[in-house]
Design goal:
alpha/beta; Leucine Aminopeptidase, subunit E, domain 1; eight-stranded mixed sheet; 14 helices; 19 strands; 34% helix; elongated
């Protein structure tokens, strides 16, 4: 999409639709007042007549009755003036862009969002528009018949850097969404590695892919075992971004990518299997983030490590009771083959630590227990370093990705004890998200580490703001923003 800036007033723009934000006090800003004057003072009364109150999530589309060049006006609610945040702007502009498209608009002219947030507001509005208009049409026969917005111009804005940053980040999130939405028949470990390789080649990153033979030689017994039941063999994908100048540190971003999860020998119920193509959402978030990082160029060396496998039942599948030797050398007794994500992450975390990572963040659709604890709209956050935990929470707040800091209670570690190995891969059900995180902590190698259980927010069943149905790309924004904030860019 072509997003630009332009001079003049909102009322003068030659566009299919105009976009304007209004809060609950119904006080129009300069752009709104100029538009109201061009409409002979009828904007306010028109909004009142349709019951528009400016609440968050509220959108109203009005005709211009030929009084201005644009055919339609889309007004989006911002809520209470004192409560407006960057993410509210992101959501409002996403909702409004979708309403404009629904009304048939191909070109949009937008008033500038709140100046109180400076460049962050412009960037958020751009992200909202790009992500709110996202559609996954690869498998639709009518895709060519659907109206799409081709251009957006912001009025009276002179911040092309913020616009470019918003588009780069939105591309990363959209890539993650595309990967999550692709069916398992088309996106399996080898194909996922190919997509990562193509992106790296385009953006100038290093990419190394380890196949099953290389993983066996390396000693990554957990990844190999999880992938053993499938004809489509596992892969470990290693992306590296290196800054052009001095590096401020080395980050490790680690993603679980079970491209389809049947549960293995511990087969999932049928109702729980339909959307298991999304069990690679953590890996998708890392790939999307690495793409945005390569474009936005933060001053950090970043290792993106994605452990990809299919978890299938077959004569060659790993079994309950098996004992696996992980890349770290630790052994794991298998109590449940449907607790496979933590196994591939165990090897991926060890691999990442060996690359010299100074801090690591892993993302995984790991446990239903996290969804029970914090709902579908939030991730559970666990960590060993309070400074890193707070940095991730701050980045998540800026990006509008809700998460909650959960405890790592050592007392629960006893439930992971094994009689024959170093640890079991799954304890009893109570406190399941905590125990899964405690398992992963065993492979963090005393490096500052955060684990994000994104089982809930990685997938959505409804549209809201810039969030869409199906794969959300959750986590991508937080990872990129974290590096930007640590570099002092926010």
């Amino acid at each position: 999409m072509n997003i630009t800036t332009t001079a003049g007033t909102l009322a003068e723009q030659q566009a299919d639709a105009l976009l304007l934000g209004v809060s609950t006090d119904n006080q129009l800003d300069d752009a709104g007042n100029q538009l109201d004057q061009a409409l002979d003072g009828q904007l306010g009364s028109a909004l009142a007549s349709v019951g528009f109150s400016g609440k968050r999530g509220e959108v109203c589309t009005l005709p211009s009755f030929g009084r201005i060049p644009a055919a339609r006006i889309v007004v989006t609610g911002l809520g209470e003036p004192s409560s407006v945040t960057v993410d509210i702007i992101r959501s409002a502009w996403g909702e409004a862009a979708r309403a404009a498209r629904k009304a048939g608009a191909r070109t949009i002219a937008s008033a500038a969002p709140s100046s109180a947030f400076g460049s962050a507001a412009i960037r958020a509005a751009v992200e909202g528009i790009e992500l709110g208009l996202y559609r996954h049409t690869a498998y639709r026969s009518d895709a060519s018949d659907q109206t799409d917005v081709e251009s957006v111009s912001f009025i009276g804005v002179d911040d092309t850097e913020a616009i470019a940053a918003g588009q780069k980040l939105a591309r990363g999130v959209s890539m993650a969404r595309n990967l999550v939405n692709a069916p398992g028949m088309d996106l399996y470990p080898e194909r996922l590695a190919g997509r990562a390789w193509e992106m790296a080649d385009e953006l100038g990153m290093e990419c190394t892919v380890y196949d099953r033979a290389a993983l066996e030689e390396m000693g990554a017994g957990a990844i190999v075992a999880v992938g053993r039941g499938s004809q489509r063999e596992p892969r470990l994908i290693h992306l590296v971004y290196r800054p052009e100048g001095e590096s401020l540190g080395v980050a490790g971003l680690v993603g679980k990518a079970i491209t389809f999860d049947t549960g293995g020998v511990n087969l999932k119920p049928a109702d729980g299997m339909r959307n298991m193509k999304m069990d690679m959402a953590g890996g998708a978030a890392v790939i999307g983030a690495m793409g945005a990082i390569a474009e936005m160029k933060p001053p950090y060396t970043v290792h993106g490590v994605i452990a990809a496998a299919e978890n299938m039942p077959s004569h060659s599948a790993y079994r309950p009771g098996d004992v696996l030797r992980t890349l770290s050398g630790k052994t794991v007794e298998i109590t449940n083959t449907d607790a496979e994500g933590r196994l591939v992450l165990a090897d991926a975390l060890t691999f990442t630590a060996r690359q010299g990572a100074e801090f690591m963040i892993d993302l995984a659709t790991l446990t239903g227990a996290s969804v029970v604890a914090v709902g579908n709209g939030a991730a559970s956050l666990f960590g060993t370093d309070e400074g890193l935990v707070q940095d991730v929470l701050q980045a998540a707040e800026f990006g509008g990705e809700r998460m909650w800091h959960m405890p790592l209670w050592d007392a629960y570690r006893a439930d992971l004890n094994s009689d024959i190995a170093d640890i079991v891969n799954s304890g009893n059900r109570d406190g399941g998200a905590i125990k899964a995180a405690l398992f992963l902590r065993e492979f963090s190698h005393d490096i500052p580490w955060v684990h994000l259980d994104i089982a809930g927010p990685a997938w959505s069943t409804r549209e809201e703001g810039y969030r869409i149905k199906c794969g959300t790309g959750y986590g991508t924004h937080t990872l990129v923003t974290l590096l930007e904030q640590r570099a002092g860019r926010h």
